[in-house]
Amino acid sequence: MNALLEIGTEHLPSRFVEPALKQLETLAAQILQEKRLEYKSVQSFGTYRRLVLFIEDLAEKSADVQKEVKGPPAKLLKDENGQFTPQSAGFAQKNGIAPEKLSIVETDKGPFIYAKIKIKGEKTPKLLPEIFTRIVTGLEFAKNMVWEESGLRYGRPIRSLIGLYGDKVIKFTVAGVQSNRYTYPLSSFGRKPIKVESADKQAYVDLLKNQPQPILVLPQERREALIKTVSAEAAVRGYKADLDEDLIKETVYFTEHPVAVGGDFDLKFLTLPKELITTVLKKQIKMFPVLNDKGEIQPYFIAVRDGISVNQNEVRDGFKKVMSARLADAVFFFENDKKEGLEHFQQKLSQVLFLEGLGSMLDKAARTEKLALWLCDKTQNAALRPAVQYAALYAYADLTSHVVYEFPELQGYMGGEYAALLGKKQEAAAMRDFYLPLTSSSALPSTLEGNLVALAGKIDTLCGNFLIGQIPSGSEDPFALRRQAFAVVRILLEKGLNVSLKELVEASAKEYPQNTPDKGLSQLPGFLFQRLALVLEQRGHAAGIINAVTNWYELPLPQVEALVSALEAVKNGEEFSSVLEPAKRVCNILKKSPDVSENVTENLLELPAEKDLYNQIHEVDSSLGCRINTAKTKDDYLSVLKTYASFKEPLERFFTDVMVNAPEPAIRNNRLALLARVRRYLTQTVADITKL
Question: Measured between alpha carbons, how far is 145 from 135 in angstroms, rounded to an integer?
């Protein structure tokens, strides 16, 4: 039979619902396993007012289990008369078996008495009250309330509970609420109970859907209905809705039956920047903007109410009043910002702390400007210097503006808007994109100027935090440093910038005062390496190949990727793989002589195999020439790596014919020096092939 649990609550915040539904499934699976109850599947679904768990084909009783219980030491089984001792007899009685059924088991601590017992399964209706209670009380929420005598902490007060197994009610009580078989309609349409006959998922879903005011209890159905109703409302006006994914998800979880309500707003509000209008609509008042085919915002809004009503015009007027008031506030802030200007906001940055001990945001802006100009020169983009300098200098200015104070998510964008009003087109584009990418994999800035300025700001943030020892650990990352590091790696790599991470970190650190205490900057390269490895994997490279690149920190990242590609191309080739074992043997021998020199004395080479290996080193020297230092592309690195295979035969002969640990110290050290020269080529020149 199936089981159904419904937790009826007061209005849960939208962000609470999806995590709670996931927890329902996890908790149910854990507890059912603990109780040895078999089932086909557990499914959760629901709304902001009802969290539902459906258990399909739940067994009628828990499984029987055989169990071995450890008792007293074996010497206490019987006394000198061959009778069971009080200890063994009591142990047998405690476990419900005859003393004759006790056995002796040898353990690490000697022989002990064991009782083999069979635990019979219990009927499911007897177990479900505890199971349902534990599932309900086991849910965790970001914020909790206490509203009744038991002191249960919960996201919102529990007002009803359904517990069904087949058509039978499972009785249990949580927070003073007794379970039954009744749920309730949409909150604005009375409290007449709705009777649920049995634990049938489809029947339950249909029952709610067929109410006078339908309830769409399945999130996917609500999502489809939401998109349909909002799109239809936009189409009536000849446009399309801005179906923002975050807003769709939020709306799905604050409605039970989404119904679109469209309206218009005053044309004067279109003088506001597009992102400011959409932020007011989407973030503040949860409305969908309306766009034309070019993506331009139109003077309409689409709100969403819960359920159908006969007074839709009054609802529309109410939404319009709220929206007009919020947009009027935005106009007020925007007009004040235009009067004061970027120069005013930039000077106010002196009153905004960057990090304790590292000065103000005005100081940070100055460092970002210097770094951005250095990047222009380093990447041979001197023509971009004027635009980059302005964008970097004013990138943080809008943090003190009125609009960004009210709408922090518009930082950067509003600075770009204010720069555009001054005719600074290139600078404005860079400033709008300054905080991109917003996630580890989202879009980078759209212009080269924007990428250079964003890169400068992000590496300054990373260096500053690591300098003062503010380093992410575990899941804690309050300053989003992992995202900043991902951005640094991606900009360098995807934009093909000829700058190494080492140069970038050193240039950034140099801009901080020399007396700044260093509590952790040495950990920044490793932190960046972790992000680099993940980005390369995301770009389709084999996991772990980056570990073989010895000088990843000193090379521009496009070259690092070219070398990784070359290593992938050769690592499984017969010629290359044949030298891997000899290379590992060379390294293992030299581990015992860490201070060995690479200076080989030619006249101490006695055996032909020694001389062959020595000659091979010189051959590789001359064939590589300056190619190692000038290699940039995959083909360049392939050419270098192919020379490694030439060491195969000389090394095999060397290990067959030569005793490295010769009794004479001079001969022994000379042979170790010869191997040290080989090791340098195979593990340090461009890659450590022993790590493949």
Answer: 18
In the three-class reduction of DSSP (H, G, I as helix; E, B as strand; rest coil), residue 658 is classed as coil
Please work out, in degrees rounded to the nearest 5, the angle formed at the alpha carbon of residue 399 by the alpha carbons of 395 and 402: 130
CA triple 464-441-467, angle to 5 deg:
10
Which of 572, 532, 559 lies closest to 636, judged by CA?
A: 559
Q: Please say if the pLDDT value at position 55 is more than 70.
A: yes
d(CA 197, CA 164): 9
CA gap 312, 316 in Å, rounded: 6
Cα distances from 335 to residues 22, 405, 408, 432, in angstroms, run 46, 14, 17, 19
What's the first-to-final CA gap in the chain, in angstroms? 54
CA atoms of 333 and 578, how far apart (whole Å): 70
Shortest CA distance to 204 belongs to which of 52, 312, 328, 62? 52
- The H-assigned helical ranges of 67-114 are 86-94
Query: Which of 164 and 94 is assigned the larger pLDDT?
Result: 164
Helix (H, G, I), strand (E, B) or coil at 439: coil
User: Rounded distance, CA 438 to CA 429, Å?
Assistant: 16
Per-residue model confidence (pLDDT) at position 15: 95
Cβ proximity of 426 and 449 under 8 Å: yes
Angle between helices 448-467 and 481-494 (to 10 degrees): 140
The residue ranges of DSSP E strands in 81-234, in sequence order, are: 103-107, 110-119, 158-165, 168-169, 173-174, 177-178, 182-183, 194-195
Rounded CA separation 488/166 (Å):
57
666 three-class SS: helix
Amino acid at 611: K
- pLDDT per residue over 349-380, tens digit each? 999 999 988 999 999 999 999 999 999 999 99
Give which of 21, 9, 23, 24 is closest to 218, Cα–Cα.
Answer: 21
Contact 623, 643 (CB under 8 A): yes
Cβ pair 196, 182 in contact under 8 A: yes
Tokens of 578: 């044949």
57, HSE (Cβ side, Cα atoms, 13 Å) = 4
- The angle subtended at Cα 13 by Cα 137 and Cα 160, nearest 5°, is 45
For residue 93 the two structure tokens come to 């009685």
Task: Report the alpha-carbon distance of residue 640 to residue 526 in Å, rounded.
Answer: 27
CB 28 within 8 A of CB 7: no
Helix axis angle for 385-394 and 448-467, nearest 10°, is 50
Q: What is the DSSP letter of 85?
A: P
Residue 618: C-alpha distances to residues 373, 395, 537 (Å): 44, 55, 37
Tens digit of pLDDT for each residue in 123-166?
999 999 999 999 999 999 999 999 999 999 999 999 999 999 99
Whole-number percent of the chain with pLDDT over 90: 71
Over residues 248-295, the pLDDT tens digits come to: 999 999 999 999 999 999 999 999 999 999 999 999 999 999 999 999
Measured distance CA(217)–CA(208) in Å, rounded:
7
How many C-beta atoms lie closer than 10 Å to residue 29's C-beta? 14
DSSP per-residue codes, 189-214: S----EE--SS-HHHHHHHHHTSSS-
Q: DSSP letter at 360?
A: B
**pLDDT value, residue 80:** 86
